[in-house]
Amino acid sequence: MLGHVFKDIKGNLYPSVGLKKAGEHIRVNFGQSPFTYDINNMMAKEKLHVRKEIARTSTSSLAHNMKETDMIQALVLQFLQHDGYVESARAFAQEIQSEKMALNLDPNAVIGDINVKDDEHATTRQHIRRAVLEGDIDKALKHTDACYRDVLKDNEQVHFRLRCRKFIEMVRSAAELRTAAEGKKSNGHAASNFSHQEMDLDANGAENGTYDHDMDDGAGKTGMLERLELETLQYGQALQAAYVNDPRREVTKALGDIYALLAYTNPLKEKEVAHLLDKKGRVAVAEELNSAILLSLGKSSRSALEEVYAQTSVLLDDLRENGGAGAFVSLQDVVDDIPKPRDS
C-alpha cells in the first residue's frame, strides 16, 4: 500500500480509465469477481492495526482519577441501577468489592465500599417491566397508573403501543390455547390440565392479566377458546374505535398489522404474521415505558452506557465519510468479539 495521498477531498470520486488508441479495451474488476490480490487479508490486517491503536489510547482524559477498569465497571453498575435491576446491581457491586480485595497487595490500603442505594422507583419500574415482559399488560398498566399517574397521559404513543401489545397478547393466548387443544385432539383424548396461562376476565370482558386453562372436558376447552376469541374481538373493536379518526400513518399501520392476526385460525403457525406474536416484541414496549417513567422523574431516558454507545456510533459514522482508519472500526465487530456464554 502507498498510504493516503489526499484527505478531505470534496465531491464524489469515480474510477475511470483513459485509453490512448481506438479499439483498445481493458478488463476491470470492481468486486464482482474474486480479486487476484488478497484484499480481504489486507483489510483484516488494517483492522487489527487500528484496533491495537485504539487499545493503546489512554482513557485518563475521560474520567480523572479513575482507571479504565473502574470506569467500565461504573458504567455497567449505573446501567443496572438505571434500568431497575437493583438486585443485579447489588450483586455486581459485591463482586467488584470482592475482586478489589483479592487483588489488593497492600494490607494497609483501604478498599472503599460500593453502595447501591435502595430506590423505591427502581423497584417499581422493575415490577412494571417484568409485567410487560411476561405479557401481563393489564398489570403493567395498573401499576403505572397507580404509581405514575401522568405517564400514560403525557406519553400517548407509549400508551398506544401498550394497548396494541395487549391485543397481541390476547391473540397469542387464544392461539396457544388452540394449539394445545389441537395437540390433545390429535392424541385421541382430551387433557384435564392445560398449560397455565393465567388470564382473568373482568366484568366487561376485558382481559386482565392471565388466564387459567384448567378444564375438565373438551366442551369446556372449546367454550374457553370461544370466550377468549370473543373478548379479543371486542377489545380490538374498542381499540379501533378509539383511534378511528387518528391521522397518523404509523398508528394506522400498527393497527392494520395487528388486525391482520384475526384473519388466521392460528396465527402462530402462519409465517406471514407469526413474528408479530414473538415475545421479543415485549422488550421494545417495556423499554419505551421504562424511558417514559424515567423522564417523568426528571431522569435521563438512557443510561450513561447507552449514551456512550450512541455517541460512539454517530462519531464513527462521521469518520467513515472521510475514509481512513474510521472505515475499519465497527461497534458491531466489537460486540461480535465478546465471548458467548456456553450452553449448559
UniProtKB/TrEMBL annotation:
Describe the location of the B30.2/SPRY domain by residue ranges. 1-35
Q: Where is the CTLH domain?
A: 121-178
Q: What does this protein do?
A: Involved in the proteasome-dependent degradation of fructose-1,6-bisphosphatase.
Q: What is this protein called?
A: LisH domain-containing protein
Q: Which organism is it from?
A: Verticillium longisporum
